[in-house]
Known about the structure:
Number of domains: 1
Strand order of the largest sheet: 1-6
Mean pLDDT: 89
Helix content: 10-25%
Strand content: 25-35%
Amino acid sequence: xxxxxxxxxxxxxxxxxxxxxxxxxxxxxxxxxxxxxxxxxxxxxxxxxxxxxxxxxxxxxxxxxxxxxxxxxxxxxxxxxxxxx
Length: 85
């Protein structure tokens, strides 16, 4: 039986809550996006209290940090997006 795995994304699309502009951001396991500036409206996109970061709050994906933590807690394999086959 194959062990379950968590896929760590290389990028995510952030939807600005102020102007709805979609911006692609690169993700890495060692960076944390607490605040991001929208390229269109120049407003700060800040992490709401109920979320860990801008990626988890304003994207369809979860951040690498939360995915790695979940994988370690559940004993799942960690796969980087470029390693998939």
